[in-house]
Design goal:
The complex is a heterodimer of chains A (about 180) and B (about 475). Chain A is of the alpha+beta class and about 180 residues long. Chain A has helices spanning about 10-35, 40-45, 85-95; strands spanning about 45-55, 75-80, 105-120, 125-135, 140-155, 160-170. The longest helix of chain A is centred in the first third of the chain and has 26 residues, at about 10-35. Chain B is α+β, with helices and mostly antiparallel strands. In chain B, α2 (about 30-40) packs across α13. The chains are: A alpha+beta (about 180), B alpha+beta (about 475).
Amino acid sequence: MSVDARSHSREQAIDRLLLRTEIEDFLYHEAELLDERRYSDWIDLVAEDVHYHMPIRRNVKFGEWDREYSRAGVESSWFDEDKRTLVGRVRQLETGVHWCEEPASRTRHIVSNVQLVRADGDEVEVRCRFVIYKNRSQDLENLFIGKREDVLRRDDETGWKITRRRIVLDQNVLLAKDMNILF
Amino acid sequence: MTRSGSDRSLASLVDLEQGLVSRELYVNPDIYQQELEQIYARAWLFVGHESMVPNPGDFFLSRMGEESVILVRDERGKLHALLNTCRHRGNKVCRYDDGNTRVFTCSFHGWSYDTDGRLVGVPHYEAAFEGALDKEQFGLHEVAQLANLNGSIWATWDSKAPSFEDYLGAFEPTIRHCFDASDGTENGVELVLPMQKFRLPTNWKFAAFSFDGDALHGSTTHRSLSVFREAGVAVMADEQGTAAAETRAAEQEGRRIVQRGGPYATTLELSSRQLGHGSHRNLYEKPIDEIPYVPTWEKYEPPEVEEYYRRAWERRGKKFAGHYLHAFGGAHVFPNINVQDNRHLIWHPHGVGMTESWRIFPVDKSAPQVVREATLRYAIRSCGASGVTESDDMENWNYAMEASSGTVARRLSYPFKSGLGGAYDDERVPGMTVNQLSAEENQRSRLRRWVQFMEAKSWDDLYPVKKG
C-alpha cells in the first residue's frame, strides 16, 4: 500500500486511517506494558529477528549530517541489541537485584506524531516521537526525548511484532547516569 | 578518622597503615579544586589515539580534567593537543566532536588558528591591532609534553613531568600492548568513534579509584548478571554471570574469592605502590605459546568470529613464544584512566559531585566486518550507562556520594583494609607488588599517590624525577 496521500481514493484513505489506528493502538499498548512493568508481556511483542539500535549523536558541522548518527556495527552505539540480549535485559529487570532499577523507576512513555512511512503486505514502517519521563527513588529524574523508527510485522496468530527499532535520542553527552529502561 | 586540631594537612586524612581514609577526600569542594591544580594540571592524561585523527586536518575533541582539548593532526602530519579556548576572549574555537578542518575559527571575533595552533587570522588586524598585537604570542595554548605509546596519545601540562615511559614504570608494557591487535601486531587497533559519554553524579575517585581495585563488589553489585547465562548472552567482566555466581558461592563457603584467569593463570592484584597504577591481571604458569586458546564466541556469534580470534591468539603466541606475558590485558593509569584490551574507561572530573565518564572501544584495524560487529556489540552491551554490567556500578557510585556528603556522614572514614599488609614482591613482575585479587591494594596505592601529588610543590618533589 502506498502512503502517498495524493493518489488515494477515499477507500484507500479509510484503509490507511484504520491501519494507522491499529498501529497507534499497538504502540500505546506497548507503552502501557512498559510503564506497568509488564516486561515479560512486552518481550512477547518483539520478533525473534529484531534489531534494536540506539545510535550516539555527534556534534557535526552544518551539512555533515551523514556523520551525525553512529552506524550500527561499524561505530559505537548506546544500544545494539538482538532478541537474546533483550530477553536478558528483561530478565535482569525482573531479578529485583538490578540495582539501577531497584527500587524500580516510575516511567511514562508518551508516544506521538505517529506516521506510517511504508506498508508492504504484512510489514509496516512507522515513525513516532517519544517523551519518556523517568522518576526514581526520591529525586532522581531523567527525561528521554527523541524519535523512533520501527518496522512492525503482522503475525496472524500473535499480532504485531517489532522487527526493527531505531531509537534516536536527542542527547550528545548522555545526561543520565544509566539508561536501562526499555524504549 | 580523627584529625588533631593542629594537623589540617591532607596527609592527615589518609592513614594507609591503618587503611583508613577520610570521606572528606571524596566530598569536599576545596579538596576537589586542589585536585584540578595539583593532579590534573601535572599528571600524564590520555587524550586519544592516532586512529582518531589519521589524516592532516583531522581533529578529535578530547578533554584533560575539566577542560576541553583539541587533538589535531597538522598539515605536516604532526599531532598537537591544544586547549580549546581562543586567546582573545576565551571562547571555544572548536565545537564539533570530531572532523577535518584547515583552521579553527572562533565564532566571537573571528580569530583563526592553523591546525598546529598558530594564530593565523585576526579580522581587522591592520586597522585595529597592527603594531600592538604580536600574533606569535597568541597561538592556542599547547600541552607541555605529548607522548605516543604504540598509537595511543597522552599529554601533560607540566614540562617538568618525567617521560610518559617513566611515569608508567613497570606498567609500561601492560599499557603498550593494549594497543596491539589481538594477534600481537604493534599499533594494531582502531579506537572507534563516536564514544559513549555520560554524566555520573559522583566524585571521580569513587569510580576511578575502585576500578581494577575492587574485586569484592562483583558478587553483590553484579548479582543480576546471572540471568544472562540462562538467556545465552555473553557479558563482559562476568562472563555469562559465572564469576558473580561462583564468587557468591565462595563467599558463602568461606573460601577465598575465585580467580578468573583461565587455564594456567592466576589472577592477582598487581600494584605499583610508588606510581599509583595497578591492575587485576594474570601471572602465568607457562609461556603464552603453550597456553591453548579458550573458545569464547562460538555460542553467540558466527563461526568466523571464533576463527578470527583463535588464529590471532595463535599468531600472538608465536610472536611472543617463550614469554610469559604476565600482567598483560590492561591496567589503571593514575589518576583517571583505565586502559584494557577491550575497552578504555575514563572518568573526567566535572565538579566535586559529578563525573563525565567516557567509554571507548578498540577493534583490530584488520578485523573483517563480522568480527568488528561482534566485538563492538559485546562491549556495548556490557559497558557504560546502557550496559547491563556497568549500569549497576553507576547506581552504587552515585548513592555512595550522596550518602557520604552529610555533615555527620562525612566525619566518618572509609576502611580500605582488605589485604592490608598482605602485599609482597614477586620476581615475575619486577616493579610491582602482588596481593590477592580481593585485596584493596590498588585503591591504597592510588590514595598514596594522591597524597604525594596533592602535597608536592612541583614535579621535583614527585617520583620519578625527570631525567636530564
